Amino acid sequence: MTLPALHLVEFPLDQQDRPVPTEAAADVRYLIRAEIDADILCRLLNQFALQGHVPAEVESSRREDWMDIALRVNTLPRYRAEVIAQRMRGMVSVCSVDLHVQGTETVLSAT
Length: 111
Fold this sequence. Notes:
This protein is α+β, with helices and mostly antiparallel strands. The chain is elongated, with a radius of gyration of 19 Å. Strands 2-3-1-4-5 form a 5-stranded antiparallel sheet, with helices on one face. The chain has helices spanning 40-49, 78-89; strands at residues 26-35, 57-63, 66-76, 94-101, 107-110.
């Protein structure tokens, strides 16, 4: 039995598989509460590193069995900020993530 020859379909270079949001970068602040875990800061910061962003500020404090973490990134589009917040919320030791985007009055929060 012979398999048919494979043919590659050519697409124009300007065609994209999915729409890409074209938002201006905003100043974004995350307020995170997580259980004490030795690698939680690394895992949270990795979410930005995977997207090629470096936080402008990182602050954390330990209170009993919890860590309160504040992260600020000033080069992040709102869409990307929301995606990163959802990924953080999916982490096992993360209890809550509040997302504040400069220029908006709303706070996107979830536990």
